[in-house]
Hints:
Blueprint: H1 5-10, E1 18-19, H2 22-25, E2 42-44, H3 49-62, E3 66-69, E4 86-89, E5 96-100, E6 105-108, H4 114-121, E7 126-127, H5 140-146, H6 153-156, E8 163-170, E9 175-179, H7 190-194, E10 202-210, E11 212-213, E12 217-225, H8 228-240, E13 247-252, H9 253-263, E14 273-281, H10 283-298, E15 304-307, H11 311-322, H12 324-327, E16 334-337, E17 340-341, H13 347-361, E18 365-370, E19 375-382, H14 389-406, H15 425-428, H16 431-444, H17 471-474
Amino acid sequence: MSPDVLHRLAAVLPAGRLMSAPAQLAAYESDGLTAFRARPLAVAVPETQEEVIALVKFCSAAKLPFVARGSGTSLSGGSMPIKDGIVIALNRLNRIVRLDPAQRVAVVEPGVINTAISVAAAPHGLHFAPDPSSQTICTIGGNVAFNSGGAHCLKYGMTSNHVLGLKAVLATGEVVEFGSASREQVGPDWTGLFVGNEGLFGIALEITVQLLPRAETFHTVLAGYRTLELAGDAVSAVVASGLLPGALEIMDALALEAAVAAVHADYPAGCEAVLIVELEGPREVVAADRVRLDGILAKSGAVEVRVARDAAERGAIWKGRKSAFSAVGRLSPDFIVQDGVVPRRRLGEALRKIGEWSREAGLRCANVFHAGDGNLHPLILYDGSAPDGLERAEALAGRILKMCVEMGGSITGEHGVGMEKRAFMPDMFSAEELACLKRVRAAFDPLGIANPGKMFPAAEAPALTQHGLHPLEKAGVISRE
């Protein structure tokens, strides 16, 4: 890289908004997956869309790699920086440009926090449906990049189901507009193609999202079970009945222990798993569905069933669930949050295998997952100070991902491929399919400067970690060939 590149780059932004001191860069070395890290050349902090466009045009002319980043909550290494590139931090692009309650849409910049949209829409009886666990800190730009889901994606779908249009700057510096505020569109679905691109196409500048009416009423139930299998069977029974809850979530004993320690959540004692079922909608519909749900749970073998009596109790139930990922940090110095999908009918089998393999590996594994759509989130606890701690954890994570594919599922449900799972892409896609995906990426980014090294296997050597060699190589799960 030319030695004067940073000097020229600094001229693109006002003074003080290009950070290159080691202490400034340290906070950007990794995202939520801290096992993967790299120090960028610099971090650029634009405050306007025009400044983002100018930065991307500079990168394109200089062939300088860049990574767009919001709050850094990615759990797959998707926003990890590139050693010889820059980070474009988007948190200051945080305006809600327009909110139209009549049309039920909002136009927002990428740095807007997920929950801020619902807060702004609440006076109009509307909300933004996607609700990832990190929704109080994650940005809509990151949600778009990784097609985030959340606890209520069973009923409402993923981020892609709620983005109607967007304005973006591609890696070439070209500014494009896809979709519109209308739900009726013709022609290729460029918006759908862009959502979930993991930053490999460019940077979203404005996102047009649909808003939905806030449910008139909620019925939130917490059911405790002696075994995970019984909880899984209850999920199957609920879905088979034809009910469509807003959410169907399961937490196992270890996840419950973490939530209790972190936020003093009140869950049934002595249970190996709890099931959270939430019905929502018009009062008459929820009242009828509640009768059916009560009957199903009464026959499901639950040792205790609690119904949230008011908004405060409902909030307490969800606070425990939403805090589960971070709460596990109270039980272990280090942990990996994995993300895979299995067919719902094979949930019990998948959980049994995860339990067996974690015992074989001598590692504890907490299970928190969106049971309604089979999206598993095993939290693998390990001690990073142990010589082989990370490697053993990564080996178990890799075994789980391969199982998901073998069962007919996916290596990711909502966290993306990023850096962590790119070695498993050939397990899901053929060489021809991967070549096609690369051609699509090249159409948006012919120089390969937007978030390079992510998603595709063998594009570059695997990232180094604090232990030196990539943990999956040490574990024999991947190779550099």
